[in-house]
From TrEMBL:
Pfam families: TetR_C_13 (PF16925), TetR_N (PF00440)
Domain HTH tetR-type: 17-77
Keyword Glycosyltransferase listed: no
Protein name: TetR/AcrR family transcriptional regulator
One Gene Ontology molecular-function label: DNA binding
Superkingdom in the source lineage: Bacteria
Keywords assigned by UniProt, alphabetized: DNA-binding, Transcription, Transcription regulation
InterPro entries reported for this sequence: Homeodomain-like_sf (IPR009057), HTH_TetR (IPR001647), Tet_transcr_reg_TetR-rel_C_sf (IPR036271), TetR_C (IPR011075)
The keyword Transcription is assigned to this record: yes
DNA-binding region: 40-59
Amino acid sequence: MTSATGYARRSRGRPKVFDRDAALDKAMALFWQHGYEATSMAHLVEATGAKAPTLYAEFTNKEGLFRAALDHYIARFIETNEALLFATDKSLEQALGDYFGAIARFFTSKETPNGCFIISTSSALAASSEDIAHTIKARHARQAQTITRFLQQRQQQGEIPLQCNIHHLSDYLCCVLQGMSVSAREGINLTSLMRVVETTLRILPELIKN
């Protein structure tokens, strides 16, 4: 082996290891910003820096990559915010205030596209993407289930009157969150979203009475 050949082999080094989490971060941001339909595998290859065969081997196809990005979003952001709801040392108002406030800051963060990944991608889906729509709907239902579970716990603890319909209250709070996401997507700032949070908390005593 000549010295030139040996140098060439050494300079190649080891093959680059595929970083799944980094690729999902970039794919998530792309889907989040442009939607499922408008994002192609070519876009995803360019954004992640991975080769197409690598992405296909890891995720099968664009739909598989989207599902993985969706679960990545839930694990990275939603589960972190949900933990604020179930802090046992906080009152009903404090827990909801911390949760809604964290979501307001998240929806307007400069580090990610504005609004909610789930709501933003679902609103741009074509009618032909039934499987993806079903997946998004199932994941989105988790938020309502989490809020309902939180409210049921607080009702059992006596903070919410027994006559209050927990499911109706949960529906209302979920609609507020969805409205916050849409408003953030359209450019509303954090200060304005926090006013929405403050208003929601201010009328909460009347909401739980009815």
